[in-house]
Amino acid sequence: MGTNHADVLSAAEEAVLQASLVCRHVQRELDRVRAITKDDKSPVTVADFASQAVVARALRARLGDVALVGEESSSFLRDPAHAPHLDAAVRAARTVWPDVSPAALLEAIDHGNVREVPASRTFWTLDPVDGTKGF
Hints:
Helix 1 (5-28) packs antiparallel against helix 2 (46-63), helix 2 (46-63) packs across helix 4 and helix 2 packs across helix 5. 36% of the residues are buried. The strands form 2 sheets. A two-stranded antiparallel sheet has the order 1-2. A two-stranded parallel ribbon has the order 3-4. The protein has helices spanning 5-28, 46-63, 75-78, 83-93, 102-110; strands at 36-37, 43-44, 67-70, 123-126. By secondary structure, the protein is mainly alpha-helical. 49% of the residues lie in helices and 9% in strands.
């Protein structure tokens, strides 16, 4: 899929808008959505997972198969013990992605797990909510 700079900028703006709407939803629901902790004890919230998924989805929809290096992995949400967090992330993503399923959300999060990008390829990097402690 051929793209020009205006297309890339427009796709990025749309992705950021969608992610900001998801984060605002989570902020409004903060009493119901508690911060969760990854194995390395760094904070992560439902907003991190949901916003990474919607950014990946938005970029792919507009730009095709983009290379995305994102901070989050779906492994935490795939653990049955964390089903409430997966449900909360799906609810948050539905703010901008009404028909999202848990499987689609997990796949979109993992689209951000590109770890090796050829030097000749353009790629995106994403830290969904930088400074989550202050979120």
